[in-house]
Fold this sequence. Notes:
Chains A, B: Keywords: DNA-binding, Transcription, Transcription regulation. Chains A, B: This is Transcriptional regulator. Chains A, B: Residues 12-110 form the HTH hxlR-type domain. Chains A, B: InterPro entries: HTH_HxlR, WH-like_DNA-bd_sf, WH_DNA-bd_sf. Chains A, B: One of its GO terms (molecular function) is DNA binding. Two copies of one chain form a homodimer. By secondary structure, chain A is mostly helical. Chain A folds into two domains: 1-89, Arc Repressor Mutant, subunit A (Orthogonal Bundle), CATH 1.10.10.10; 91-121. Chain A is 55% helix and 9% strand. Chain A is built from seven helices and two strands, in the order ααααββααα. Chain A has a two-stranded antiparallel ribbon. At the A-B interface, α1, α2, α6 and α7 of A face α1, α2, α6 and α7 of B. The structure holds a DNA duplex (30 and 30 nucleotides).
Amino acid sequence: MYERKIIPNLNCGLDLIGEVLYGKWKIRLLWFINEGYKRPSELQRKIPDASRRVLNIQLKELEEHELVTRKIYPVVPPKVEYSLTEFGKTLIPVIAALGQWSDEHETRLRNVILKQIVGSDLDVPLIN
Amino acid sequence: MYERKIIPNLNCGLDLIGEVLYGKWKIRLLWFINEGYKRPSELQRKIPDASRRVLNIQLKELEEHELVTRKIYPVVPPKVEYSLTEFGKTLIPVIAALGQWSDEHETRLRNVILKQIVGSDLDVPLIN
DNA sequence: TCATATAGGGATAAGTTTTTCCCCTATTGC
DNA sequence: GCAATAGGGGAAAAACTTATCCCTATATGA
């Protein structure tokens, strides 16, 4: 497992939420768990672009940060279910605010993001 | 300048906001610009843990994403001022929601974050 | 004359995250 | 025996981000 070499700074509130929410897929994991997708394989199907490995890692971090709990059923093949903790549930309105802002500005966001990427010289398959 | 090798996926709203908000210091930059700290040197003083270089890069990305504008005064020594665009201003309530959540849960957040870091085996100077 | 302030950028190194590949468990069904 | 299923983890490579160092330019003040 990777060991940090630099101590994160935890001065202000925004540092703290950054620590628990950074990670490419964490917000989506919380969101989908909240929507009722509890099993790792379900979550992987909902987030197919993420590697299986990374979802496991980020789920474990969410668990260490007490935002989700993991319940293991002693059956074969194994069954695992994640749920939001009470603490984790308090984050849902915040994530909803993020999602709502994105939805309200979706067109513009796509434009500015694509303009930047295309201008940079990556081949972007223009889907229309 | 760095060229991406992987095309980001922009499927859902959460992908979009991630594109413009990811970056270690971007949220804080937006916040401080909103509070009236406009000049690069002021922002660097407000965020001393960030390198000068990275702040420049992230400010430029915020500009490309149309969240801030940059005004250059043709004087010597140079003077530059950043301001939020109207689009950028719409993000402030969202950032405020993040900050408010962090503040409400500050103690708990510090605990779970420190527990994880200390448990991992980095030397953390225990400040009390 | 020399340091300081101001804004910025290139090159490279270091750090961190994510992906990819392969392996392990145990059971059911063919 | 072999494949499929479900969950997981180690190792290494690739991708990405951030830090460090050094450079530009001009004006002011010690």
